[in-house]
Amino acid sequence: MAKKYLVILGLVFIFAGCKNEIKYGQGFTDDPKQGTIYISVDESFKPVIEQEIKVYESSYPGTHIIASYKPEVECFKDLMKDSTRMVIVAKGLTPVETRYYDDRIYFRPQFAEVAYDAVSVIVNMESKDSVFTFEGLKKLISGKKDGIIVMDGKNATSTVRFLQDSLLGGGTFGKNVMAVNGSKAVIEAIKQNKNAIGFVGSSWVGNESEPAQREDLKKIRLALVECTKCTEKDLFAKPSQSTITFGQYPLIRPLFYILKENWTGLGSGFMNFMSLERGQLIFRRSGLAPAKMSFLKRTSKIQE
Prior knowledge:
Strands 1, 2, 3, 4, 6, 7, 8, 9, 12 and 13 form a ten-stranded mixed β-sheet that branches. A three-stranded mixed β-sheet has the order 5-10-11. By secondary structure, it is of the alpha/beta class. It contains eleven helices and 13 strands.
């Protein structure tokens, strides 16, 4: 009987010692050029990620990247599901969160910034006010100043979290803040109300080559916001790829991928695509600032 218990105890130690050898995703057959994966994406990044997926799948017809667009907190919940290979959100993992996933799935997801986005302030084309100081925006969303504020939710979205952190220092919104269902609903609300002020991710309003966005920009406009990092006073900027890159627009946030894959699968292929030239150019075209590559123009003299 004693020998039996020793054998069982020995097996326990063997399996415990094998923890770090378990490969998450073992048994999957996808690779960068074929297969199907499911990802969850922060809804405020939907337009640009749709373009990234469209180009990737057209380059590799054997691949299918099925994206669910939802609030940021729901994306992080999905990260614990076996069916979700990647999430694309506005923040990375803290050391505590990294250890948590290591303990739960025996693997530390890899993550990095691939672009920088702006939270665009939008107003109706007939609005009398389209220029805002940073302090003025704080007063508006805290309810200390009158105004109808429209956001893509009351909580759980990256836009809400970002504005609470960057403008209110973790404080609460005023009673004048109205929650609607998603970024497109914010745009539609601003179209209908000349006194309202909305907040959306820049990829929803920053790409004039997209027909739907061109139509939206006939009824709404991007507001100017005070540059808080400029040495010269009273400078204001609209969100754009240039003002994000040079820090002139103050409401800037990162776009992260978090990948739960430790072999070269389709998730790794899509991650590499977004990080390299073609993917980075798509971010740029959509009005975001690429995080991995610089496309700044340089002048040079050519000797004939």
